[in-house]
């Protein structure tokens, strides 16, 4: 017998689509059946009420009519009837709220029994089977028996669900299994529609979603699907992977089981978490670098000189002039310093070309001007040195003519030495070239003179 080839992805998709359509038809059919059952139950209750009312009317007619002998006696009977009606209604309401048998109602709860409060009351919306499972699980802790389950179950009902319980016939429930069955049947239509395996094919990994988040989201949905086949689970989770290196790795390795797929995914998850940790470190470092300089510890230069020269001009003007004269170069970042919002705009430094401090407060500018002043480059901005330079110049102008003439008189030489410097430089750089030039000169000298015509 030949082996049947496995279905192709297109055939699997077609089979999944057919199963989905069949499930939808079955769900619709179940809904219609539940509506019919509910309608039949309602009709039966109405019919029973009609029969009960007819029987009561028949009994009243068959009873002998009592005629009051006096008007006072008739009034007393009327009051007695009015008092008896609320009591009858209260008794009927009490009976309707107690559909359990006498054995359950007479059961004595343990003295140390405490009712759990962790379960949210069921109000008619949601899956009734899920509510029963949760109720049983929390009651197991107290070792609840069947009568205790019956007595405690109404405490976890609310709204329409509690109204349904109160409408149950009296003495109709003797076991919790009967109550759970009627509860599940009545609220079956209110159950939330559970996803089937077809829904898994719609779950895709997002463009920026990590593999760990995708597998977690996929698993939460898959766990709620009853009787999910492992092969369908594996095919769906592989189909939802985002195109990339990991998808290519899975396509090449072709894991056969979910365990093999999770083993491959674990390595990829470790790589992604390592990359994310590096990105976080880089972003943290970048944020630290982007912090304004004002938030960091301010740099305060220390003055280099104990005393500074007093200038006759403002330091701002001196800085401008020496910058224009190219005597010094401006700072490399002059005019391009980042300024925070809290900087004092009223202060400006001409040397650094930034706000926050003045030129007189700038220690670097003061040290620079002091160094230039001590080197003699700023004498014109110092009052004492300007007078000294002026007086020395006037002394030179008023010097005596005799001294000038004396300075002009040359000194007598001690002796004279005559020398010949150089020689004939024509003819070229080589000896043969100089010889040719010399022969040409001799040929010109020895040439006969040609008589000139008169």
From TrEMBL:
Q: What highest taxon heads this organism's lineage?
A: Eukaryota
Compositional bias (Polar residues) at which positions?
389-402
* Cleavable signal peptide: none
Pfam families assigned to the protein according to its UniProt record, in alphabetical order = Retrotrans_gag
- Specify the Retrotransposon gag domain's residue ranges: 152-243
Region feature (Disordered): 22-98, 270-306, 389-415
This chain belongs to which protein, by name?
Uncharacterized protein LOC107459480
Per the UniProt record, the source organism is Arachis duranensis (Wild peanut)
